[in-house]
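Researcher: Please translate sequence to C-alpha cells.
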Amino acid sequence: MRYVRTKDGKILKNGIEERKLGIRSGKGYEILINDINKSREADTIEELCDQFVMFDENNTFLIANENFSVIKDLWNRRDIVVSVYGEIWFNNELRKVAKMNKKGEFELL
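Model: Translation complete:
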C-alpha cells in the first residue's frame, strides 16, 4: 500500500507509519486509524480516484470518465496541450486531488 484515502476526502502518500492509535504521515500530523477508509487503500493514486477529467490549454473542459485507461489513451494521442486531474467524491461534490505530470504519472495536489 502506497496511498490511503481518508474519510474526509484526502489522499495521503507513503511515508505513513501505522501506530497503535493512528497513522503519522511524513508531514508530521496524525490520522486516527478509524479515519481511514479501509476499502480505499491502493498502490497508485489512480486506483483511489472516482473520476478523471481532461482540459485543453485554455482550461476548457474536454471529457470526464471514470475509467482511467480511456483518459490515458486520449492523453497519449493528444495533439493539443491538456491537463488531466483525478477527482474524488466528498460531501456530494467532486474534489480535484491529483494532476497528471508530463510523464503521464499522477502527483498529489
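Researcher: Any highlights?
Model: The helical segments are 68-76.
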